[in-house]
Amino acid sequence: VQLQASGGGLVQAGGSLRLSCAASGRTFSSYAVGWFRQVPGKEREFVAAISWRDSNLYYADFVKGRFTISRDNAKNTAYLQMNSLKPEDTAVYYCAARPTKWGPRNSNEYDYWGQGTLVTVSS
Description:
The chain is an all-beta fold.
C-alpha cells in the first residue's frame, strides 16, 4: 500500500489542522493506521492509531482530548483532526499502516509509511 500524508501547515497556537493520509494499492480496510511525529534530533513518537474497522482508537497521553483519529475506508483515507494546537506540537507528522487489525504504538511494527507533512505551530 502507498500512503500520502497531507494537510500540514503553519497555524497559531490554539488553532486547528486536519491531516489526511490517502492510501492506494491495496484494501485499505485491512490495515490498521497510525500517526507519528518527529522533530529534528528526537526519535519518532507515537501520536494516535486506529484499528482496521474503526472500532478501536489509541492516543498518546499528550494529545488526549485535543486530537481525534478517524478513517473513511470508502475513501481509503485516514485523518488526524488536531485542535488546541500548541507550539510543542510542531513536528513532521507521518502516517503509517500495517496489515493487521490493531494499531500498535511502536513505529517499528508498521510496514508502510507516508512521506510526512510538516506542522508548525507559532506562539
